Every structure is written in structure tokens, then in C-alpha cells.
Amino acid sequence: MLTGKTIVLGITGSIAAYKIANLTSMLVKQHADVYVLMTKNATNFINPITFETLTNHKTLVDTFDRNFNYNIEHVSLAKKADVVLVAPASANVIGKIANGIADDMLTTTVMACKCKKLISPAMNTQMFENPIVQDNLKKLEHYGMTVIQPDVGLLACKDVGAGKMPSEQVLMDYILREIRYEKDMVGKKVLVTAGPTRESIDPVRFISNHSTGKMGYAIARVAMERGADVTLITGPVSIAPPPFVKVINVVSAEDMFRAVQKHSPEADIVIKSAAVADYTPAAVAEEKIKKQDSDSSLELVRTTDILKWLGENRKDGQFLCGFSMETENMLENSRAKLIKKNIDMIVANNLKVEGAGFGVDTNVVTLITKEDTVELPQMSKEAVAEKLLDKILK
Predict the structure, then answer these.
(1) Strand arrangement, sheet containing 319-326
(2) pLDDT tens digits for 263-311?
(3) Active site residues per annotation
(4) What is the pTM of this model?
(5) What CATH number does domain 6-179 carry, 3.40.50.1950, 3.50.50.60, 3.40.50.300, 2.60.120.200?
């Protein structure tokens, strides 16, 4: 995922320093080349050997330490870095960076870096809310650095308030957004639908399907990491939404249709991956159900065909992509949908094929356009999302 990427982690004197060991491990597992810089105060909270073991690089603390390879001095490291994350960032180091002070290895390297810099403050609430610290954070943002807002919670000093460093996964998400992909979708607005819909039968029961939303969520995340402005319309799922994406939660097919109707005119690309119910209960014979009458029945009416509506109401230049899950005659049925619904691409898969379908982390799909058909082998849903977006951009 991060092969060929160089990440510099700057650790300052805060109890939250221990969390960066896990973040370092997460980055190394994604094949990133990670270098760790520590202030002298940071070494009182966690031993530099921890990071040397994880990264296979010397942890740099002293600017004048000559006991390491010459080409890893602060200037050459700054040149090769793809992103710098200072986390936890103490009030002291925030003040230094904001005011151009470079008096140790960490601040000197940050000053020399031209790549994107991420700053994650972690400190006591009173310190964080101090107007001097807030002014310094605004200075960092003014100079193009991203300040990761701290969480609110119980701090090490037992105070409760803002100043808690976010989880390692949040820090990882910021790094991935910055460097995982080339930003070839900047300026594009993408609308993605995902997950199932639920059609209520009564206050207790509903009609739904087995969709987990994993494919749509993967598309939304990859599009976001490639620089797109993403809106995700999602039915009820049990997975966490991708970060940095506008999420609109819906329940029924009608809810989803109204959300698509409202937001699709703004989108350059619309990808409908949601498994929307084709029918919704019109009425329930409640008395018959209560009596357990064998003649009780459920009247169904068709829901709005969202993909067909999109094809009939597209704006100029808008790209429309739908999904087609079949159990037989996959290519023929999917090509027919492409024409009938007046869209640009159908992503077809067969529910009977191993590695495809609901609830799994992989998919086996065929990308169908009016010009050609591209069969993809089994791959992760994020890899499918990459190929899908590549095809759309072409």
C-alpha cells in the first residue's frame, strides 16, 4: 500500500508518545519506509530502541550525533520525506515550529522539509486552550500545515477536556489521505451509494438484503484518497464510514432515492453500488396477522428505480456507473441494463462465483461499457475500487 513512500514521525515530550509505536508498526506493515525523530524530552516517555527495532533505522535525537550514516542527516531526510507527522506535538514544539526555531533534530528537520506536514497536538486542556497555543496552531495552518484536532476525553492528568491525541487509526487515515495515491481526482465531486435498504413491514419487521456496504465504502475511500470531494449515501451497515467523506444515512429505498435526487445534480461522477430493495410493502393486513390467518398476505409495490432515474436526469458531462449482481447470464443481463438505464458503465458480478458477493473482502467483477468489457480477477474490494476509478477517469 505504501511501498516507496518515506514517512518521518516526530515525537515530542508527551505521555501519548507510547501510541506512536503502534502507528509505526502499522506503517511498516504497509511497507512504508519510516524514520523517527525524538526530542530529548520524548525519550523520557518511550525508549528510542523501540522505534529502531520497528523501523530498522536509527532513531534520531541529537542533531550533532555522528553515530549514523551521513546520508541520513536532517537535510537529506527532509528531501526524501513524502510526509511528516509530529505526534504527539507538545505546546513547546508547536511554538518552536510556528516561530521558526530549529534547535534540535526534530525542529531542524521539519524546518527543512518541503513536503506536507501534519501536526497532532497532545497536552493538558488548559495548555491547549491557551490563546498563545491557539495562535501558534493558526500560524501552522497559515503556513500550509494540517492541524489534527485533539479528542475530548480523560487526560493523563485526570482532567477531562480537549487535548487527547486521536487514535493511531485516525493518524494513519491522515497519512493515507496525503500520500497513498496520486491526486488525480482533485476537483471531482463523486456521489456513491452503498449498503442495503430496509422496507418496514410493521414496527418490528422489515424486508432487506445481505449487502454489507463494503464495496461502496471502498469506492468512497479510494476516491477520497485520490483527492475527490466525496458524498456517501448509505443504508444501515455495521462498518465504520470512511474518513473525510460526507456521509448521509438513509434507511428505506425512498430515503435513498430522495438523497440521490438532492445530491446527484452536484456530482461529476455517480456510482450506485447500493443493493436497493425492488419492492416495499404497501399495506399490512394486521388483523389477519394477529389471527395467524393462513390467507394473510403482504401487498408489495415497486420502489423507484434509482439508476434509471439517474440515466433520465443526468446533467451534461456526468458519468454514471451502476452495479449488476447476477446469478445467471451475467454479461447479457448487465449489457441490457447498461443500455436500458442509459448509463456509462456497469460493474457486473456473479453471486455464485467464489470470492464475489456479499460480506466478503474480495470481489470478482467485469467492467462493462458501450465500448468494451474488462474482466478483473479476484482482488480486494479496495483494489477493485482503484481499477473502477481508473476506468472512469479514462
Answers:
(1) 246-249, 229-234, 189-194, 269-272, 319-326, 345-350, 366-368, 373-375
(2) 999 999 999 998 888 888 875 444 444 545 545 567 888 899 999 999 9
(3) 157
(4) 0.90
(5) 3.40.50.1950
